[in-house]
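Minutes, structural biology subgroup

Action item carried over from last meeting: produce the structure token record for Tc1-like transposase DDE domain-containing protein (Cirrhinus mrigala). EB confirmed the sequence was re-checked against the source entry. Recorded below for completeness.
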Amino acid sequence: MYVMDNEHRYCDEILRPIVVPFIHDHHFMLQHDNAQPHVARICTQFLEAENIPVLAWPAYSLDMSPIEHVWGALDRRIRQHVPVSANIQQLRTAIEEE
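Output recorded by EB:
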């Protein structure tokens, strides 16, 4: 029952009110990990019905995790900034500009 509640909550509280409008407005793909609520049949059917494209997440392999590559690439680009960010606000601005 607990897992079913999580699946329904994920669809009702995250996907429907937040993800669907954002993705449709900005033409993004959704990527989530393989957590049970994310891959539950009710959620995958909901995403298909809403025509939400989902980027596959490799199972249990950090070296194949797309988000790990994104963070590494962002880190390399930020480190090339001259002058180097002196505080959190400058770092945030640099990240947002990338």
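Discussion: The chain has two domains: 1-57, 59-98.
Next step: EB to file the record with the rest of the batch.
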